[in-house]
Design goal:
191 residues, mainly alpha, 10 helices, 81% helix
Length: 191
């Protein structure tokens, strides 16, 4: 758990080499498939950021296999382990959605966002909630009657992500949401 947390901190600080080292440490020390799943999802985030598509897909395949094995034993999990599993599954779907979005596969990205459980656990985890807000802000998992309604909802999600990340000192999400807002406004001006 500690190695996964340190990997996440390194990732948020954009020290991707250190993050990968911490995630590799999980595989070397953990006998827990749940923690290995969390490490795989962490690696997927890193590989997405450094644009290593082959490594991303290898990690995703490994994560999906681990998840299938974990689901078979979920009835024996404690409530804390179930919450950790739900968090890992949400992360898995969100990073996959972002990857699909970045390579231009919008329907697949929306389908992944539909699998994210929007519940109290998501809202309680600041970084997950911010990522969900960002993904909704770039248009994933969002349908509307008119173009103006969709733009307004996207703006609301991105603005919420920006304000919360500034208040909480989440520079990574502040950058993502600022970029998303700039893109949304530029697109609106072009139209």
């Amino acid at each position: 758990v500690a190695c996964n947390m340190l990997g996440f901190v390194a990732y948020m600080q954009m020290d991707y080499d250190a993050a990968l080292c911490w995630y590799d440490e999980v595989d070397g020390q953990a006998g827990c498939e749940l923690e290995r799943l969390v490490a795989d999802v962490g690696r997927m985030n890193v590989y997405l950021r450094i644009a290593d598509n082959l490594a991303f897909y290898n990690c995703r395949v490994r994560a999906m296999k681990r998840l299938a094995h974990i689901i078979e034993e979920v009835e024996f999990f404690s409530p804390a382990e179930r919450a950790r599993l739900q968090s890992a599954v949400n992360d898995l779907h969100m990073v996959t959605a972002l990857h699909h979005y970045m390579v231009g596969q919008r329907p697949e990205a929306r389908a992944e966002m539909d699998r994210v459980a929007d519940d109290d656990a998501l809202r309680a985890d600041s970084s997950q909630w911010l990522m969900a807000q960002y993904l909704k802000g770039i248009g994933l998992g969002m349908d509307g009657d008119t173009y103006e309604q969709r733009v307004l909802r996207r703006y609301t999600h991105l603005n919420s992500c920006l304000r919360t990340s500034r208040e909480g000192g989440y520079g990574y999400f502040e950058g993502l949401s600022s970029s998303g807002l700039a893109e949304l406004l530029a697109d609106s001006l072009r139209r």
